Amino acid sequence: MTVPTTLRRAGLAAALMLSALQPLAQAAPSPLLDASHPVSWWFAFKFNAASFPGCGTAAPVNSCQFGGSPQGYTSGSSYSQQYVYASSSQPALSQGGGCIGDTPADPVGATFKQIYNGTLNYVVWNDQFYDDPSIASCSGNSCGAPWGHSKGVLAWDDQGNGVVMQVSTPSWPASGSAQYPRTSDGNTLGCVQDNDVQVSQHFFSLKLSHADVLSVLQGLANASVVTDVGNPQIVKNGGPADIQAAVDQLGQKSDSAAPQVSKLSSGVTLIAKPSALQVPPWQLVSAELGGVALRAATWWEGSKSTAIPTTTKAGAPACWDSSLPKPGPVAIATSGSWGGKIFSLQGGLGKNFNHAKIGVSTSGAAYAIFGDMNQEGSLSGNCASAQNGRGGLFFALPNAALAQSIAKLIGGSTAAAAAR
Asked: How many structural domains does the chain have?
């Protein structure tokens, strides 16, 4: 039977109207450069207050969009939220505008906003929550060894598509949802009591598949990161059953002594160091990337006995595990430059120091590397010293343009070599 044209048109109109009433499918979570610009990855380096004080000019100062209020240290030249960034759409570093983390138009603020003001599932971890939230299994207001020295947020939708943001900032983030705000502190960079915006910091975000989300969760468990699966302020567990099961394994001290090395769908290599693998952190990264030579900039205090010096030759140090491949040399960057201005890359208290943990390969394949861990510990002697005895994650991104740009950023002076 032939359906009259008028009825066909009426049916089509009704179908279109019904379609218009259906909610639009939510886009999979992604790293965002701003509210309307998703990318596969981005990296941001926030300067210290001595080199680039205050904020850029493209946004109001300290709007505290995720809660909190401007702190005493966010005045004059005692803080910095100026930054440089790169992304999959523009892999060479360029300077950003406004206050990083405090606007919907910067990578950190835009990416976190989709989590904090959205409906995604999430896990927030940080070894320095400072009791908001309180972690019952830690003594004091932060969590030392053998807990992982690791900070970040992972979020995923009900299909398992996800986004991870690694941060180096104490006390931020410390809530994954506006429905469960912090009760004693803010949740915005520059608006928390810890002065984490005085020193340099880094941020790295990566788009994840379902399988990638599982790999990251397994890495977090291997590294013994600090979280609490029973606290909705920092964990909302949902989505696919295998992801939920992996989340349930978090917030415990792992007894693993083997690194987890995973190749993610983006080509990024994820390396998870467990606390019981008591080896120098960046030597481990070199070894797992094929023994490439590295240059790393971390919280490194040359005056301390735990500051691991530059190594100039390949080969395993005394603090090593025979099951691991041999590392290449690791140079320690102690200064960098941007726009003709030199800044310190050493660790310490005050506004002239660096708390980012970034590196590049200087031989073999070109990698930009973003880590949780400082190059502090020991090459020999007390192999459990400092970060040797803690866990953390490293993301090694194969991208020559980004690696070259970061190498220039951290290409200043170098710490003295180890005596051999």
From this structure: 1
